[in-house]
Amino acid sequence: MQATAKRTTKRGAAKKRALVRGEPVVRGILAAALEELASAGYRALRIEDVATRAGVNKTTIYRRWPTKEDLVRAALLSVTDEKVVPPNTGSLRGDLLALGRAIIEIQTSPAGQSLFHVFLAEGPDSELMAIARSLRAVQEAGVRAIVESAIARGELAPGADPMLPCELLGAYLTHQLIADRASVDEAQLARVVDVILLGVLPPGRRAAL
Amino acid sequence: MQATAKRTTKRGAAKKRALVRGEPVVRGILAAALEELASAGYRALRIEDVATRAGVNKTTIYRRWPTKEDLVRAALLSVTDEKVVPPNTGSLRGDLLALGRAIIEIQTSPAGQSLFHVFLAEGPDSELMAIARSLRAVQEAGVRAIVESAIARGELAPGADPMLPCELLGAYLTHQLIADRASVDEAQLARVVDVILLGVLPPGRRAAL
To answer: Distance between CA B165 and CA B97 in Å, rounded?
Structure first.
């Protein structure tokens, strides 16, 4: 009896370790959740189907993400987590270019394209959009790191809206994707970044561009 | 017989006059088409239902707009036609502010809100979006007037992408509406316009801001 209990505890601990973010099981579940979301949409998404797709028991999912909302929130975060890291290239220009490239990479990836369609289909007042909105604070942490470095380097004019450069860039890239069904190329990205940059740099730093 | 023929011709001419754009009958039909589009979507839209809603015979519609696509194209154009006129305020800053206000006014109007939902629901690869895309050249005429005046006044740095200021502004306003479900207020509009403006003005004109 004691030996069995011990083994169970060991297995429990092993399972707990396996469910740390970034571990294969977790990655598999979150990838399966994104695929289910893309094919079924948010309303019709069922934890059972995610479990089947990921090849795990549904209790494995419920243990970590008690609700569908929790699971979808984690899945959405996983898309941007790896890519929108604070680039920290040493200049606001470099960081904005890196951010722009990361956004374009996500937008043009198969997962990004599927999600884009799901979001458009569910509409701005959907539960899915509410979840995405609640994630903005988390996702903006990377952007905030760019902004804070820029302020520390004296690259933002005092009194400016510090989030505006990144917001303008993100808005432009998304708009081009919706309006033209085309992603922005590197040359146009640089043009847009330079216009935004010139608009936010303090007067003394503009000549450097 | 002759008298009857004359009367018919007179009626035909009167009808033709009535169907000049901006005339009450045309306005009524286009408004009805927008309402039908908002409630039924593009795929399910029927000319018969538009005719019923507008209180006209469906041949009155077919005579001027032979296909559903023609009618929807005209209806979409009518939304922006009256509002996105070249403001011509005498400065690029004034024109961008006027353009921004016009976009916000359309976005927050009942017709604009309904259309926004229809566009999102139909998705970026829909026929409706293709029609909207085909209209951009027409709608950009107003924007082009702003750009040309700015170039003539020496307000755009040489070598700049001339459409970029207006595109950035439009993208930002649309993105805020989608992401925050809120329109941009006058103070934020001015902040955004000034960042964009500073980014596109030639070096010698920046001090004037």
So the answer is: 11
